[in-house]
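Posted in: Structural Biology > Protein-Ligand Complexes

Title: Requesting predicted complex, nicotinamide-adenine-dinucleotide in pocket

I'd be grateful if someone could produce the C-alpha cells for the following input. Sequence and ligand are given below.
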Amino acid sequence: MILVTGGAGFIGANFVIDWLAQSDERVVTLDKLTYAGNLGNLSPVRDDARHVFVRGDIGDRALAERLLAEYRPRAIVNFAAETHVDRSIHGPAAFIATNVVGTFELLDAARAHFAALPEPERARFRFLHVSTDEVFGSLGPHDAGFSETTAYAPNSPYSASKAAADHLVRAYHHTYGVPVLTTNCSNNYGPRQFPEKLIPLMIHNALAGNPLPVYGDGGNVRDWLYVGDHCAAIRAVLERGRPGETYNIGGNAEMTNLEVVNALCRVLALQRPGRDYAAQINFVRDRPGHDRRYAIDPTKIRAEIGWAPRETFESGLAQTVRWYLDNSAWLAAVTSGEYKKWVSLNYATEDA
Ligand code: NAD
Ligand code: DAU
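-- Reply #1 --
Done. Output follows.
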C-alpha cells in the first residue's frame, strides 16, 4: 500500500486514479479538503475497494502516526500543499502552516516509522516529496534550464515555503537516513485543475464570456507539462529513483502566457465554436514579484530514470479543453461560493 497526501487535489487525484488503473496496490489518501481539495476529483475510484480516503491534515502528527501504524505503507507520496502563488501573496500564513510545518510533521512521523521498521520493509520504504521548479527562482531569456544543481532562489511566499520543505526533506536523508526522493516539476495542466490557475481560469472565463486576465505584458514564460506525464514521472522516480536524490521534471514546452492563452482560444474555437475568444483577452496589473521565466533541463530524469513526456502541448491542451467541456457540472460546483470571493479579491475592478 502507498499513502498519498493531497490526493483530492489536482495532481494528487490524477495520480491516485492513474495508480489504481495501472496497479493492484492499494492507496490510502490523506487530504484536508481545503478549497482546492474536492472529493469529486476522486469520483472514478469512489467505489474501488482498494482505495481508502481519510480527511485530515498532514500537520496532525497523531493522525499520521495512526495511519502509518495501521496501513504500513511502503511509500508516502506527499502532494499536500497550498499551491497558488497569488494566494500566497494575499495570505502567506497557510503556506507556512501546511508546506513547512505540515511537511515537517509528516516527515518526522515517517522518520520514526522508518526507524522502527523491520527488514525487508525498511529497505523498500520511500518518502517521495512532490515539489516545484519555482524554488529555483527566475531565469533570464537565454539562461539554461534549471538543473538539479541550480541554486535555490525562491521569490514568492509559496516558493519559499516549498523550498523550506525541500530542505527539511533533504536534511532528513542526510541526518537520519530517511530514504527520500524529491521531484521538482514545471507547470502542470490537465483535467481537475482548480480554475484559479492560468489554463482552467482562462477556459472558465472564456466559456462564461468574461475577460481573460493576462498579467503584465503576457511575456512571462512557463514550461508546460500534461498532468498524466507528471504522474508517470513520479511513479518512475518512486520505482527507480535513488534515495537522497532530486529529479527535475519538465515538458520541453516553453511558452509565453500570451502564446498559451492564444493557443487555448484556438482550441476552444474548434471544440466550442461561436465566439471570438481571443477578443476577450485583457491585460491586467502584474503579479507582484512575478518570475519572468521557468524552464527545466530534463537530462537527469531522462538518462537515469528513462522518463520523457508522452503528450505534446497541443495534444494535452486538446484533451484538457475536452475534459472541461464534458465536465461543466464539476466546473460549476467548484466555481461557486468561496471561489467568487477569491476572484473579486485578486481581480479587483481597477485591474480590468
Ligand atoms: P492543489 O492545490 O490542486 O491540491 C492540493 C491538495 O492538498 C488539495 O486537495 C488540498 O485539500 C490538500 N491539502 C492542502 N493542505 C493540506 C493539509 N494541511 N493536509 C492535507 N491535505 C492538504 O495542488 P496541485 O496543483 O495538485 O499540486 C500538488 C503538489 O504538486 C503540490 O505540492 C505542489 O506544490 C506541487 N506542484 C504543482 C505544480 C502545478 O503546476 N500544479 C507543479 C509542480 C509541483
Ligand atoms: O512552476 C510550477 C508551479 O506552477 C507550481 O509550483 C504552482 O503550484 C502552480 O500554481 C504554478 O505556478 P504559476 O504561478 O506559474 O501558475 P499560475 O497558473 O498561477 O500562472 C501561470 C502564469 O500565468 C504565470 O506567469 C502567471 C500568469 N497568470 C496567471 C493567472 C492566474 C496570468 O497571466 N493571469 C492569471 O489570471
